[in-house]
């Protein structure tokens, strides 16, 4: 079981890139996102460079495992999970690079909780990294990164991952589909941030393996079957500790 507090802060030059997913009670959506994104990170050999975690805006489920329906859906899809719910704390912002909200309500709550504007800027909506619902996806063709906000003309709740808690298994399955669709774009954004600050070890592939098994560049391009790399544009981590945005 995970300890209820995040690891201690490291000097920024040595710290891995830290991503925390946040939903309401940390038993349904955010542990699902944590499990899926951790799998993507491990599949792409980034587990020494990226730390993945989750929490809830509320603390009434602290210490509980994930909802059995979340566990069932994850295991059916081949994901591992070992979860203990906890509540997000404002002081964690200093050690985190991205705080990924599962819906608009979480986005607002987390930004209100943030001690500084720089910390509030670390909060992003998960589905803003899904190219199907956020035009251009997380990494645009010119190499700039999504802001994590709703596309122009869209309502922010269009990017919500709906809460499946009060429904049946179909809602949990839909939740997993949304999470999986967004995690490839999120991985591309995190990799681009790491490339921009030179945090990837020499010899690590520039591309990342998507959920479909394709090897893509950090700009979202598919690499050839022969493994030929296409150029990618690295972005520096901003003072808020997030990928630079345009």
Protein architecture, described:
With 246 residues, the protein is of the alpha/beta class. Helix content is 27%, strand content 10%. It is built from 5 helices and 6 strands, in the order E-H-E-H-E-H-H-E-H-E-E. The strands form 2 sheets. It has a 4-stranded parallel beta sheet with strand order 2-1-3-4. Strand 5 (208-209) and strand 6 (215-216) form a beta hairpin. It is globular and about 45 Å long.
The value of Rg in angstroms is 17 Å
The shape, in one word, is: globular
Strand arrangement, largest sheet? 2-1-3-4
> Which residues form runs of ≥5 with pLDDT under 50?
1-14, 138-146, 150-154, 201-208, 215-246
Give the helices and strands as they follow along the chain: EHEHEHHEHEE
Oligomer: single chain
The amount of beta strand, in percent, is 5-15%
Layout of secondary structure:
Layout (H helix, E strand, L loop, with lengths): L16 E7 L5 H15 L6 E7 L11 H9 L21 E4 L2 H10 L3 H4 L2 E3 L43 H28 L11 E2 L5 E2 L30
Parallel strand pairs: 1-2, 1-3, 3-4
Antiparallel strand pairs: 5-6
Helix pairs in contact: 1-5, 2-5
